[in-house]
Design goal:
20 helices, Arc Repressor Mutant, subunit A, mainly alpha, 3 domains
Length: about 425
């Protein structure tokens, strides 16, 4: 993200057709993710012409400071509603905002990043209620339909050239907002073509699966293209040429080679060289699968644990560094186990908190721990059971559960890795 000055200029380009704009989807699905400031910016930019304007006027109109505008713009870029380009012009800079239409309800539901983050924010039950509001009713099934058909009414000649020209075209998602994951689809397809795969051999849905898998395991484009080529079924029909399960398995194995991974996480910007700081850096830089292997003293993770990581990353939308911090925390606190319900509960809380780095996640664990420790315990009812001496089991569990100070993290490291 390039810092935006109030004196910088901007232009808008609408990269979608008028019929693509779904205000209901924008309001119901995107507004909770991006916030009201970003929602207002998107609506204002959509009203602009293609002339050059200065940011100062737009910010004043919206009542936003440059910092607030920049933060809201980043939210729009992250969900794919806006793509920002920049061209330098003397002392000032020209920003070009390319606007994309929101996904319709069914398209949004299929996007793992977008729908997973919204599910993590509101929960599955609330998300399902929201999704059902956008479902149409089924047509009448127990009656005879008497509607006239298109050919009956218009009597077209389908062998005419203006029909034949249209039959070769397929619907595309051009102009649709797609969540930004750090995966460069254009560069990836170029790499595939260089290795002999014809253009458009893979469907958009298959490329979407490749993107989600690569994001989970942080596989570099060159290696990823090799793995995709190994998982192709040349004789399969269009849309089913990629063996997604085999690709996921190969990426799972390849993710344990750190030199072949891309760094898709945000940095915690830790400057110190303590053991804790080094661990925070590892959390920020490693793919979740590789990090879990490190936590297990270089033993490959079980498939059930890999499925849990996949759910935390893709289903709930938790960033890689936060997944790693959660894994580290839970392993240390739950006797080297990863209870799925407990992990999901923590992951949902981290998503709601907006955590992006490992430091964010560890700070959250620390804050919640301090708040709970300050809460006075309710007196236990008098019962005729054996008396538990001074330090009760529940007290010990609470202390073990909550302490995430640097000293406690150092202790966790020693417990996990030995001396």
């Amino acid at each position: 993200m390039k810092p935006v000055s109030a004196q910088d200029y901007y232009q808008c380009k609408r990269c979608y057709g008028a019929s693509s704009m779904d205000l209901a989807s924008l309001t119901d699905f995107y507004l909770p993710l991006i916030g009201v400031d970003a929602f207002g910016i998107y609506q204002a930019l959509n009203r602009e012409d293609e002339a050059t304007h200065v940011h100062e006027e737009l910010m004043a109109w919206l009542g936003l400071t440059p910092g607030e505008f920049e933060k809201a713009l980043m939210a729009l870029e992250a969900v794919g509603l806006v793509r920002t380009f920049i061209a330098k012009e003397s002392a000032t800079e020209l920003f070009v905002y390319c606007l994309y239409a929101p996904l319709h309800a069914q398209e949004f539901d299929k996007d793992i990043m977008l729908s997973g983050t919204l599910k993590g924010k509101f929960g599955m039950e609330a998300y399902e209620r929201l999704r059902k509001r956008h479902e149409g009713q089924k047509a009448v099934e127990d009656m005879e339909e008497v509607s006239v058909s298109f050919p009956e009414f218009f009597k077209p000649s389908f062998d005419a050239k203006f029909y034949l020209a249209s039959m070769e075209k397929e619907p595309s998602s051009t102009g649709k907002a797609l969540a930004r994951t750090g995966f460069d689809a254009v560069s990836f397809q170029r790499v595939l073509e260089a290795k002999g795969l014809r253009k458009n051999a893979l469907s958009e849905e298959e490329l979407g699966k490749v993107e989600q898998i690569s994001t989970l395991y942080s596989i570099g484009l060159d290696l990823l293209s090799d793995l995709v080529m190994d998982c192709l079924r040349p004789n399969a029909p269009q849309g089913r040429k990629l063996d997604v399960e085999s690709l996921s398995a190969l990426c799972y194995k390849a993710s344990f080679v750190p030199s072949l991974q891309d760094d898709l996480g945000e940095s915690s910007n830790v400057q110190s060289d303590t053991e804790t700081a080094r661990m925070i850096k590892l959390m920020d830089e490693m793919a979740p699968a590789a990090f879990l292997k490190l936590m297990q003293k270089n033993h490959n993770p079980a498939k059930v644990d890999l499925k849990l990581l996949e759910h935390l990353r893709l289903g709930l939308g938790l960033p890689n560094p936060c997944v790693n911090a959660l894994v580290f925390y839970v392993l240390a606190k739950r006797d080297n186990t990863l209870p799925a319900p407990y992990c999901e509960k923590l992951a949902a809380a981290l998503v709601r908190e907006g955590c992006r780095t490992a430091r964010d996640a560890m700070d959250y664990f620390s804050r919640t721990g301090r708040r709970r420790k300050k809460t006075p315990e309710k007196p236990s009812p008098i019962v005729s059971s054996p008396r538990i001496e001074p330090k009760t089991i529940s007290t010990v569990a609470t202390e073990q559960e909550e302490d995430t100070s640097d000293e406690a993290v150092e202790k966790m490291l020693k417990n996990l890795f030995g001396d």
